[in-house]
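Predict structure. Chain length: 387.
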Amino acid sequence: MHTSNRTSNDTNDQEKGYINDQINFPFRIPLVEKDDVLEMNDQWISSSSNDGFLPPPPPPSTIIESFRNDGFCIFPNVLSQYAIDALNDRLEDVLRGIYDRNRKPDKVPRKLKSQKPRQTMNKEEDSTMNETESKNNPNDHHQQQEEKNNKTTIKQSGGIGPIGFSGNYQNVKVLQIINIHKADSLFRKLETNRMLGNIVAQLAGWEQGARLAQDQVWAKPPGAPPLVFHRDSPYFMFEPANVVTVWLALDDMDEELGPLEYVKGSHKWGDGRVGSAKQFFQANNSKNLLQSAATLEGLSLKDLDIVSMAGLKAGGLSIHDGKVWHGSNKNASSARPRRGLGMHFVPANVRFTADANRSSLWKSYVAGTDSPSEVELSEEDFPRSCW
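Prediction complete.
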């Protein structure tokens, strides 16, 4: 992670500070069967079945202070590479209309017709197998090492890569899925994990716990445009009007992919500029809204402390206040996708506001009533994620 508008030495110190502070709280979520054999400290592990575990201790004060002062905090290596591979594989299924929960997401792009790309073993598994085979046949060691070095994480099938990218850079569009947890059981298992919800509630100070309001997958093919700087809160028609977003990296966030960027401390700004955008992805002027909001605070763009998630590995996540301004640059890679999952949480005791009737995101949940605040939020659509 790095910060703009700083010297290189300051940037390095900032990176080390954000990462090292959170390594002291080794938050892990076992999600797939292979995770059960990983060496983890049970005291800090969230139960993969959500049963039989006591509530974990709260995050250290340094993390809570980072969240409340900066508007965000970072947790590296929450999911294993096995889990990330499995989630990306399920994402490919959903993009092809395969839903193992027999429900569609609330929004899904045009169904892909191409063959799903074949995943290879991740590097850790491949290394383990090579070491075992080498012990059985030492003469094969050099050949196996050469083969391992030549392996890639994903092999393309028929010229089509992850998220259906064909190599055509003309009119590249970002793929968006809303509420993939309704369609896929593995995504739902992650998003309803109680330790995740508990950490969100502790960071936000929600005594009643947290509830999942919505998720969004943003899959940016190579060449996809920037994400306009915005706030999340204006899109959620709930009272209390509090939102916390968990953003999970499904790819290693190298600089060229256009990692998420946060405007440090911007969650404390006033509401003079709402922070909602009609067009999320624009080739130009992705900071127009941000500039307008900063001006109202007596700031210019060059005054802002913008922190990039560059360097965050797949399986790491950031948690941010719904009022913090954030966006991302274009995916400048020639071949790699930029995939991320945003999970939006609200206090467990929320009720819809009257504005829900006029929102395309929420009106279906309050249809047929003149009093949205009296509508009970169902556990199927808005599951609680807390002890």
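Summary: The first strand starts at residue 2 and ends at 3.
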